[in-house]
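[#protein-structures] MJ: dropping Integrase here for a structure pass
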Amino acid sequence: MPLTNAEVKNAKPESAPRKLFDSGGLFLHVAPSGTKSWRLKYRFGPKEKLLTFGRYPEVSLSEARERRDAARAHLRANRDPGVEAERERQAAIEAAGARFEASALAWHEDERPRWSPRHAQVVLFALRRDVFPDLGKLPIADITGPMILRTLRKIERRGAVETAKRVMGYISAIFIRAKGEHLVTTNPTVDLIHALKPTPKGAKQPALTTLADLHTLQRLVDNSTAGPPTKLASRLLALTAVRVGVLRTATWAEIGGIEWEAHTPSPDAIWRIPAERMKLVLEHKGDQAFDFDVPLPGPAVDALRALHRLTGRGKLLFPGHHSARLPMSDAAISTLYKRIDGGRYKTRHVPHGWRAAFSTIMNEWAIEHGKEGDRMLIDLMLAHIPKGVSSSELVYMRVKGTARRRVLAETWAAMIADGLDDPMAILDGQAR
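AK: finished. structure tokens for Integrase:
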């Protein structure tokens, strides 16, 4: 039976994606997030293919049927509807003179299925408010770095320094797409990050330093409305105590010693962070001897296995919302902490606070257990260089102390993960 408007309107999400079939291969895809989109299943030659018509209610049932009929007409003429749809889109861009706004909207349409409806609205609002008035009507090939910088400076002048950086990320992704379509030859945003204002440094960053408070925070994160990648980023930040910038730019190639499909222990699991991504003096950034090894405890391996199901096919552990080629926003975890529990954690704990928590709790543990010799290793686990230690001594200490650092990492992780849900429950939205 064909679908009715009432059935489409009242279709509810379930734990797994749903398909409500109409006729002629047309169906409504209902994602667990509640997003509804029209799709057409068809066969061209030996292959079965899928064509997306847009989201409901922006595309109504009657309009989806019209698009299905048009696609079927292409098939009868021995033309692939997917190829024809791409040709029509390219023709629209060319008809607009390859203007920036047309390219930006095409990029937004491409990326939107990967985003939540809310994030898609936020991105489009930022482009319309901050970018299109200056750049929208210009041919994208004529836009230069200084022109983009002037637009970003306007955002900075209203005090929105982080917003300026996010908008630059959107513009960069638009140019990457345009370059792939041969509309431009270069990406003029490449060096602009160095021209933007740095994030203002404030007072000492707040941090919770008791296990009870940290457990409460992490349970609130697990039960928040944030996406699974952001929740798992918070979990891994807590378990490894690395810097936020190092975590969000991590690649799967840096992780070793884990069998992804197995559920067996991984006693040799390691995260090898290249020296160039560490906070080192310039002379050491290209030296492999200064690569930083993070022993991965069991709870961190569990979190990584869950994350691998989401992003393991790509390069980055945490790809960004607006482009899989770029990392997660540097504000993603901090924004989550500011919003949970009515904003109560806004002034109590920031992502960097996990490093302070690790230092405080583990040093107290070392003293209480008569392990004061571990305190220098605890400092090394934060990638700090103890006073009076030379570069060569530092490399030696890191290698020699690997086994003990793994024991300390397991000790910390056991304390932090105590009472928390299995990371796989985060994927299913079943965290308590």
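MJ: nice. The chain has 17 helices and seven strands.
AK: one more thing. The radius of gyration is 25 Å.
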